[in-house]
Each structure stands twice: as C-alpha cells, then as structure tokens.
Amino acid sequence: MPSDHFSHAVDVAAPSAAVWQALQSAETWKGIGPIDRVWDAVNDPDGTLAGYRWSATAAGRQWEGTARRTALDPGRSLRLDLDSSEIVGAIEVSVAPGGSSRLTVTLEASPKGVLATVFWGVAREALRRGLDDHVEEFARRFSPT
Fold first, then answer.
1. How many Cβ atoms are within 10 Å of 16's Cβ, its own excluded?
2. What is the pTM of this model?
3. How far is CA 37 from each of CA 23, 25, 43, 58, 111, rounded to the nearest angstrom?
4. Distance, CA of 114 to CA of 8 (rounded, Å)
5. In terms of CB atoms within 10 Å, which of 4, 73, 129, 133 comes out highest?
6. Which band of pLDDT confidence, cut at 50, 70 and 90, is reported for residue 46?
7. CA-CA distance, 126 to 36, in Å (whole number)?
8. Tens digit of pLDDT for each residue in 125-141?
9. Helices of type H across 7-107
10. Could you tell me the sign of the dihedral formed by the alpha carbons of 126, 132, 134, 135, in that order?
11. Does any domain span residue 133?
C-alpha cells in the first residue's frame, strides 16, 4: 500500500537557529505528528538528534516504535524514519532561515501490520486531522508571552 503524505507549514515567532536547536531535543518531537511520548534519545557528539524510541496512541491503542535520522541538512531540515510493528513512515521538519521562521512538517505513513491495514482509514484520518494542530502548537511554544 502506498504511503499517505500530510504536510503543514506555520510561521514561528523565533529565529531559525532557536527552532533548529529545539528540534535537537527528542522531547520537542513529543506532540509533533502522532508521537505522544519519547525516550532513549540518541544525539551525535555535536548535539544533533540521531533518534529515539516513541509511542503514539491511535485507534484506542498505544503503539511503540523507533525514530532514526535518515537525512540531515544542518540548520535547515531533519528527517526521521519511523518504524513500529503496525505502521511505518517518516517525519521531516524544514526550517526556513530568518529572524522569524517558516516551519514545514511533512509526515508520511503507511500500514505495516494486519491490524493497521484493517483500520488504516481511521488511522489516516486521525493523522490528517491532527498534524495541523500539532504543528501549530509547536509554533506557539516560541510565542512571546
């Protein structure tokens, strides 16, 4: 089954360097896309995020998986491949440089296991509906109070 793709872009009231720095913490990824918990983060010696373990709640169940960096353009974009027993995909975040930033998050996902395949329509719709809100909430973290 081909992957489904979802994307949302938002202006962030922070310099791109601050947004990029936040993306190097696995905790930041909690709440971006379907991920609601992260642990076992791995960073390169320079502090660049290399991966983490994650969980997400969907269709009344909690799913666990791994995120592994597969592409990097320092200061501009980071792609993590996501893998679990039922769903595979990737999440990529691009940051346009400047005094304020344009953040674009792209999520791709497809069912891997039998259960996800059966309920893929529901899972796909939850991912589609949730991504915009998740990205907007991430942007609000940088808003001046």
1. 19
2. 0.87
3. 15, 13, 17, 13, 20
4. 29
5. 4
6. very high
7. 14
8. 777 778 888 889 888 88
9. 16-23, 26-29
10. positive
11. yes
